[in-house]
UniProtKB/TrEMBL annotation, chains A, B:
Its EC number is 1.2.1.26. GO terms for molecular function: 2,5-dioxovalerate dehydrogenase (NADP+) activity. It catalyses: 2,5-dioxopentanoate + NAD(+) + H2O = 2-oxoglutarate + NADH + 2 H(+); 2,5-dioxopentanoate + NADP(+) + H2O = 2-oxoglutarate + NADPH + 2 H(+). It is an enzyme of class 1 (oxidoreductase). Residues 29-480 form the Aldehyde dehydrogenase domain. Coiled coil: none annotated. This is 2,5-dioxovalerate dehydrogenase. It comes from the Bacteria. Keywords: Oxidoreductase. The keyword Mitochondrion does not apply. InterPro entries: Ald_DH/histidinol_DH, Ald_DH_C, Ald_DH_N, Aldehyde_DH_dom, Aldehyde_DH_Superfamily, ALDH_KGSADH.
Amino acid sequence: MTTAQRAGSLTTPTLTGQMIIAGDHVTGTGTAVHAINPATDERLQPAYAHGTAADVARAAAAAAEAFAIYRNTSSAARATFLDTIADNIDAAVDDLVARATAETGLPVARITGEVGRTSGQLRLFSAVLREGSWNGARIDTALPDRTPLPRPDIRQRKIPLGPVAVFGASNFPLAFSVAGGDTASALAAGCPVVVKAHDAHPGTSELVGRAITAAIASTGMPAGTFSLLYGSGRELGIALVTDPRIKAVGFTGSRSGGTALVQAAASRPEPIPVYAEMSSINPIYPLPGALKARAADLGRAFVGSLTLGSGQFCTNPGLVIAVDGPDLDTFIDAAAEAVSATTPTPMLTPNIAKSFAGGVDEFDGAATVVARAAETSAPNACRAALFTTDADTFLGSETLQQEIFGSSSLVVKCRDAQQVRDVTAKLEGQLTATVHADDTDHDAAADLVGLLELKAGRILFNGWPTGVEVCHAMVHGGPYPSTSDSRTTSVGSLAIERFLRPVAYQNVPADLLPTALADGNPKQIWRRVDGELTRD
Amino acid sequence: MTTAQRAGSLTTPTLTGQMIIAGDHVTGTGTAVHAINPATDERLQPAYAHGTAADVARAAAAAAEAFAIYRNTSSAARATFLDTIADNIDAAVDDLVARATAETGLPVARITGEVGRTSGQLRLFSAVLREGSWNGARIDTALPDRTPLPRPDIRQRKIPLGPVAVFGASNFPLAFSVAGGDTASALAAGCPVVVKAHDAHPGTSELVGRAITAAIASTGMPAGTFSLLYGSGRELGIALVTDPRIKAVGFTGSRSGGTALVQAAASRPEPIPVYAEMSSINPIYPLPGALKARAADLGRAFVGSLTLGSGQFCTNPGLVIAVDGPDLDTFIDAAAEAVSATTPTPMLTPNIAKSFAGGVDEFDGAATVVARAAETSAPNACRAALFTTDADTFLGSETLQQEIFGSSSLVVKCRDAQQVRDVTAKLEGQLTATVHADDTDHDAAADLVGLLELKAGRILFNGWPTGVEVCHAMVHGGPYPSTSDSRTTSVGSLAIERFLRPVAYQNVPADLLPTALADGNPKQIWRRVDGELTRD
């Protein structure tokens, strides 16, 4: 049986429909929901009954109890734990592909790739743990003879914040869900994790939850290090974020959902950080030289990025900003042709498909439709859409500045380079901004980079934003509202810093110091000693 | 004329009573306030008229304009700028000592030391800039032959957030005020600064504001890089925090003031980070072995820390938690004797003195007074106070868990080590926690360190928390409510990270890359290349 065939097998017999709380399988007592196969509108078994505030309290209490042990595990032990989760996920690839394709309507190749990305993220963080710089070790040696006052011995390291709540995203059933980037970075930091699964892929969530739970058992981590809950965002989600034992939150989803969590977290007696990745329209800037050289190729490639995964990426290119003229017309014509030729693909859920259609309808009145994918009777299909408008209209329209989640994009025609700057200045914060430039575009490109640094977390040249490399230098973040906290990233190794805080140890006796700060550097990690980085 | 004599010279003739907005001297049109010499209740000239929302808008606009240039200045240029501010402040030491002692009632030696600390902080950040790790440079090299997809070239650096609002603190007229740690770290990061001066020391603020303005002129920085405003926290302060051009806030002060700013910043259309350092009672843990060896010495030394600067430190030891018994009685007796022997010293302002007296009165009903400093007819004097209570009473009393700003402390007598833990568990977040331990206390100390890491930003052994070393490893921060953001520090070189955010550059042409990320590492800074730190 090939993987493609397995993807047709819609019920994995082992699924229980239960939550996992500190290793225990727990049947919810709330509303029961089923995943829907958006390609067929078929209801998938089993039912997943939502949990209650009592389940949140039980998971949070277990996480707090586990934290006392888990936070003191060695980097090496946590690295082994993360590697084991990764191994378990890789081993479950067939079941995951079968279930996740059914739950999301995403193709087998995409889900197969996402499984690899998810285990790869976990292994990136195990490498980060073994390398050791995450400790943020700093030592200022004592200066007993300094006048007028001696300097004490002061050492600093970073410690985990505490239990973290993670909200699974609809659009990455693996890489931004139960064992996704937020969970991987929080577990690496030493924080237990309580996940609220997304209702769109509960079965995938259960499978991944079991992979983590099995890794906890086989590596001897405390059971409360991980729990998996099902429930609504407004009830169970808010209960989770406002539980006093939860100390940070990771979220990927809508602006309204993220904003609600940020407000709930800020209203707690003890406010906590929320890392919400929310809304981005990811402008594309084809500059005149690039357009002159290859407008039609760019237009076609743009549509490839636009329609990938039914456009359901945080980094989907929803906006093209360029100086008007014949070359831009060529770009638009090629893009329009490509959009018209695309076959509609299912969106993740009926609600997302409905929102997409509504968003496109709203744009329809405010901008010019230049292409739509063909109509289809397939359920929940994303009919790609391409609009154009002029910069003045764009600048005056709140509607056109909104994100449409899915394969819809708007080309904003500007009079000149100054109007490109004016439109850019009006944009809200973005995850990405992409420039297509040739050598002849150097001055315009240099000017744009300066503007875009203030608007986006990642600036790309001559590529497309929909691929997000998992590596050390990646930033998947950006100014509000692309995220609620621009000081960090949710993809890449820097993400571990979201769940850490520094502690200083002053004149603490050698036998009470954390190993990362011990004399002689027994862990052989990079440390900043009297201001200089060293491994001595 | 000696410095001590100059301190008696209450008006520095050059003071104008004006704000400084982007280099212009501007007379406020609001309420006029005078500094009060708290030691004499004398009103000091000149009057400082408060600014209005229009002044905030003007300063913020100038800061935003300056940001476009200032953020792109080189590390070396900003280092020279900071060094020049430091030189100017050192050169003004006589005027600063004269004015600040008059405005605060703090002694000449303290203010002289604080001038040195303030210029030292600025020089620490110039060293940080020259060293270059602040860039957070990371490079993941392209892997063009990787399958299934090539890896692009991705590089990351940190850039400044934008204009920063800084609120001067009452208790450090120099080190946490106009050119204090918040300003130094924000300017180092590349952020223009708009300071709201504290009304308790407007003249000192003006002198320091001029030192910065002169440095801007002599080093060629844009004028809007710095502005100094006078005004009320509730009006001008909130206007400043809610101005859309302001991108982060630094504050040191009361819990109510900090909370108001945090809420205002969170309610903006674009929320921004607030680094508010607020409330801490800084528990002291004399362990049984240490008490047995030197209870009386510890009691006396404790009072030295408690009464330093009339107890007006964020790190003032407001709580002692210990197992009851004869050795603790010896500690209390020695401390009581020392408290009774102290001479009351003036507090910073009449309001602070009134709040202190009110706080002590409230404790008077809830705990046992064991010592007060003598009564005095001197105005605004801080009569040090020492209270005792038992752990059960403490755990049941909200009053006794509050901070009294000033030289008042409470000894909580515990039945046993378990009750020490119970009391500790009940504490809110703290800037510091101090353990006094002998070798025989090893196990109890180890246990405490584990608890205190979760409660405090700095753990000290066998010392006192009131000294805060300015260095690389210092953490002056901690869990809420000691600060509004435990992930950072307001003292020490790590503080620069508060005002930075990461940006990734993907396949950006070499001639458009920031120098910190250029091939060949022309700045010779530490960078993480493919996961490994290197200066190559």
